[in-house]
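Exercise 7b. Backbone tokens:
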């Protein structure tokens, strides 16, 4: 029923009827209009619920704090008077799941330091984060802190969270238990290939002293990606990146492998649990 038709009919009713008859004739028309409006509202809400599933992602707001050190610290280390902290404020989940996610990402849980402890120490320059993935009930985030003591240093802490349960996802949640050794071996092959490439590049440049070369090769021989390393992985729209920290000392940190080994979901299909958090990518 068009609005023009409704107005025209109401006008004719007003001319032909008294007040009592007018109201009797208006009531059916009003009910029809309200029914049409309610139907449109229901259709809109249904479409919205189908295109935006509840709790399939989080809302992230950035909060930035500038730490200003004073007193003895500021006097002895004037170049470290300030540090910046940027961290996420999470919302958009059901109350129970939101409490769990916020607890996981509590500031103290990230690098074992509170804001007050950062203020009382001069190590930190910058604390920040990067959201790697936030969809399909998966929230993947990496925190990074930069600072210095005897040497400059950068540290990362990664979280992959299941937004259905509010817990950190481990390898046993996502991959078939019986196939974890085979999966670890596949990741290790990529690690060993990277080590060979780095070794060859340094041999070609001939820039190392003999002691440095020996130290590097001994460090490489000790590196192996094993089953217990599988818990650290990051998800994306196209696949999974397994993360590996070699933990080299500062003196050979520049020769540390990148430690990021990507596999597409097609490659991982034989290993992924169909009913696990990654099963949705291989159905």
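Sequence design result:
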């Amino acid at each position: 029923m068009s609005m023009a038709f409704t107005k025209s009919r109401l006008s004719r009713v007003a001319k032909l009827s008294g007040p009592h008859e007018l109201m009797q004739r208006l009531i059916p028309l009003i009910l029809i209009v309200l029914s049409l409006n309610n139907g449109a509202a229901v259709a809109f809400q249904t479409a919205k619920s189908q295109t935006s599933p509840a709790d399939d992602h989080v809302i992230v707001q950035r909060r930035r704090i500038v730490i200003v050190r004073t007193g003895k610290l500021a006097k002895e280390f004037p170049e470290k008077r300030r540090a910046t902290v940027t961290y996420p404020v999470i919302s958009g989940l059901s109350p129970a799941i939101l409490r769990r996610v916020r607890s996981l990402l509590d500031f103290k849980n990230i690098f074992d330091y509170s804001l007050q402890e950062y203020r009382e120490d001069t190590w930190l320059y910058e604390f920040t984060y990067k959201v790697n993935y936030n969809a399909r009930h998966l929230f993947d985030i990496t925190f990074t802190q930069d600072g210095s003591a005897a040497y400059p240093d950068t540290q990362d802490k990664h979280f992959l969270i299941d937004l259905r349960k509010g817990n950190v996802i481990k390898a046993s949640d996502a991959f078939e238990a019986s196939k974890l050794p085979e999966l670890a071996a596949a990741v290790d092959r990529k690690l060993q290939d990277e080590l060979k490439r780095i070794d060859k590049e340094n041999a070609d440049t001939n820039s190392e002293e003999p002691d440095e070369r020996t130290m590097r090769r001994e460090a490489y021989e000790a590196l192996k990606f094993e089953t217990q390393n599988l818990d650290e992985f990051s998800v994306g729209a196209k696949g999974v990146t397994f993360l590996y920290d070699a933990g080299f000392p500062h003196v050979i940190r520049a020769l540390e492998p990148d430690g990021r080994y990507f596999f597409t979901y097609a490659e991982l299909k034989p290993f992924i649990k169909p009913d696990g958090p990654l099963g949705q990518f291989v159905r």
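Instructor comment: Residues 17 and 24 are 10 Å apart (CA to CA). Residues 1-17, 39-53 have pLDDT under 50 and may be disordered.
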